[in-house]
Amino acid sequence: MRDGRPGLAEYTTLRLGGPARHVVEATTESEIGQIIRDVGASRRNLLILAGGSNVVIGDAGFDGTALLIRTTGLTARRVGADVDVTVQAGEPWDVVVERSVAEGWSGLECLSGIPGCTGATPIQNVGAYGQEVAELITAVRVLDRVTGEIATRTVAECRLGYRSSVFKGSDRWIVLAVTFRLAVSPLSTPIRYADLAQALDVPIGERAEAAVVRDAVLRLRASKGMVLDEHDPDTYSAGSFFMNPVLDGDGFDVLSARTATIGSPPVWPGADGTVKTSAAWLIERAGFTKGHGNSHVSISTKHTLALTNRGDGTTKELLDLAREVRDGVFNRFGVTLRPEVVLVNCEL
Ligand SMILES: Cc1cc2nc3c(=O)[nH]c(=O)nc-3n(C[C@H](O)[C@H](O)[C@H](O)COP(=O)(O)OP(=O)(O)OC[C@H]3O[C@@H](n4cnc5c(N)ncnc54)[C@H](O)[C@@H]3O)c2cc1C
């Protein structure tokens, strides 16, 4: 267990965020339990941080204890043709993906290169290149801060949706471990994402060697500044700042009317009559090109959805930029962009 008072910027990939009253690190489940008891009943006093790659923390910091989840470990249990892999929350996610590919456990390869820790993957149902952890998670072990009990939640109970879950936006549960069911196979799951299929030179729906898929995903992600690189400020982000908007019929009619003269945005119809469209397309067509911003904060020069700190920015400046983009898209297309990132002691 470690205790100190540094600024939280050093724990976030955006490199932004003022100080916390305390920063403590837990490397075992019992340390997590002890810290929770020490912090006491007031849930507002505690900020859970793992890789800090999906948070925007206010310049004033956090008036409480920031708990860094640093528990590690992985166990595997063969179940017929599959393997159940249970991973402790603080285990770096890409280490798990790399290990799974090396072991011949198929399923996680398209999620290569996503920053952060395993315990955060169910929080927003991490996804990329046509795959989401919702398809692979079978159980999530959680500590309930209200009852103090440790329980195992089934995947249905986690209510994993598009960048959402029962955990996101709630500070009630601490994820202790996540179990994934993976196939024992050197081949990937069927490739669903067009850019990836093209990079692999395979038709959509085809499988490829999982190790080859991982390499292709890492290359594609790096070309978009989506793999952390301390020498590249395009990666000083929290990934996609905004979610792709999901529109009902009326919302989609408004968008269609306003895009009639410039061509149709990409759309992904949902089962419930909703339509998901591309936030990046809307942002670009609203006039915000890659690199838009200033020497402190800007849209990444490689990826329209990533808002970046160029090194000397503040959270206020980043949020000003986010507001400019959000309002510009709304004025042009009538669509409200919602943040994918978790805002801590700040608002948009
Ligand atoms: C360059 C870059 C690329 C990215 N690409 C993707 C992508 O392709 N797909 C994608 O989905 N995301 C992406 N992200 C976002 C981010 O990496 C993921 O959401 C990741 O899972 C966050 O993990 P973390 O450990 O950094 O979480 P943190 O940022 O530390 O925390 C995020 C939220 O989860 C909570 N939390 C974290 N751990 C726990 C726990 N054990 N128990 C309870 N609550 C917890 C925190 O309190 C906070 O609310 C990207 C981010 C960056 C910087």
Describe this structure in words.
With 348 residues, this protein is an alpha+beta fold. The chain is built from eight helices and 19 strands. The strands form six sheets. Strands 6, 7, 8, 11, 12 and 13 form a six-stranded antiparallel sheet that branches. α4 (194-200) packs across α5 (210-223). The longest helix has 19 residues, at 315-333. 43% of the residues are buried. Residues 1-5 have low confidence and may be disordered. It binds flavin-adenine dinucleotide. Flavin-adenine dinucleotide binds at residues 13, 48-55, 69, 89, 114-117, 119-121, 123-124, 126-128, 174-175, 226, 228, 235, 237-239, 342.
CA radius of gyration is 20 Å
Number of DSSP E strands: 19
Largest sheet, described in full? 6 strands, antiparallel
How large is the count of helical segments?
8
Order of helices and strands: EEHEEEEEHEEEEEHEHHEHEEHEEHE
Distance between the termini: 34 Å
Structure ligands: flavin-adenine dinucleotide
β-strand percent reads 15-25%
Helix proportion of residues, in percent?
A: 10-25%
What is the general shape? Answer: globular
Secondary structural class: alpha+beta
Mean pLDDT: 95
In short:
With 348 residues, this protein is of the alpha+beta class. It has helices at 29-39, 93-103, 155-158, 194-200, 210-223, 249-259, 279-285, 315-333; strands at 2-4, 20-26, 46-49, 55-57, 62-69, 74-79, 82-88, 105-106, 127-128, 131-132, 137-144, 150-154, 173-184, 246-247, 267-269, 275-277, 297-299, 307-309, 342-344. The structure holds flavin-adenine dinucleotide.
